[in-house]
Amino acid sequence: MEVFTSIPSLKNFLLQQRLQNKSIGLIPTMGALHEGHISLIDTAKIQNDIVVCSIFVNPTQFNNPEDLAKYPRTLEEDCVMLENAGCSAVFAPSVEEMYPEKPTLTINFGLLETVMEGASRPGHFNGVGIVVSKLFNIVEPHRAYFGQKDLQQVMIVKRMVEDLSFNLELIICPTIRETDGLAMSSRNRRLGEEERAHAPIIYKILLDAKDKIQNGDDIEEVKESVQLEFHVLAGFELDYFEVVNTKTLQPIHTIAEAGTTALCIATFLGPVRLIDNIIF
Ligand SMILES: Nc1ncnc2c1ncn2[C@@H]1O[C@H](COP(=O)(O)OP(=O)(O)OP(=O)(O)O)[C@@H](O)[C@H]1O
Ligand SMILES: CC(C)(CO)[C@@H](O)C(=O)[O-]
Ligand code: BAL
Question: Coiled-coil regions in this chain (predicted)?
Answer without folding.
Answer: none
